[in-house]
Amino acid sequence: MRDEDPTEAESTFFTLLSVQVPGLEAWYHFDEVGSPWMIVSHDFVVGDAVRKTLRLDYDGHSLRGGWSPACLNWDDGVRAADAHIDTSSPDGLAVDDVSVAAAAAVAAEWFRRRIAHPGLLA
């Protein structure tokens, strides 16, 4: 986790996204070269236990999303590619070179579809 406030792009992105998909959580990080990025997540809870976590990385330009392999237990702060997140269809998301508003719209639609149909929550 990073102590600094979100960047303007991160703040705008999360504000726009949260209006469309309430209840998401944001986690802010720096990568190995000091560039800011964030994870937005949604936990699927059954009883008192988190069964699955949907996560999306955003760095101000690109989106990478998929299912966390460990409900963010070890992959929080690890970029999607490094955590071996499957960003391919049908559950994943990989979009490059998008504006903040477009990124929020794409992310909102992706989260809504996955939240409505999470698959098996074993």
Structure description:
The protein starts with 7 loop residues before the first helix and ends in a 6-residue tail after the last helix. The mean pLDDT is 93. The chain has helices at 8-20, 100-116, and strands at 25-30, 36-46, 49-58, 63-67, 93-95. The protein has a five-stranded antiparallel β-sheet, covered by helices on one side. Helix 1 (8-20) packs parallel to helix 2 (100-116). With 122 residues, the chain is α+β, with helices and mostly antiparallel strands. The relative contact order is 0.20. The chain has one domain (8-116). Helices cover 25% and strands 29% of the residues.
Question: What's a concise summary of this model?
Answer:
The chain has 122 residues and is an alpha+beta fold.
Q: Which structural traits does this protein have?
A:
five-stranded antiparallel sheet, 2 helices, 122 residues, 25% helix, 5 strands, alpha+beta
What is the strand tally? Answer: 5
Number of domains: 1
Please outline the major beta sheet: 5 strands, antiparallel
Give the rounded overall mean pLDDT: 93
Q: What is the strand and helix layout of this fold?
A:
Blueprint: H1 8-20, E1 25-30, E2 36-46, E3 49-58, E4 63-67, E5 93-95, H2 100-116
Antiparallel strand pairs: 1-2, 2-3, 3-4, 4-5
Helix pairs in contact: 1-2
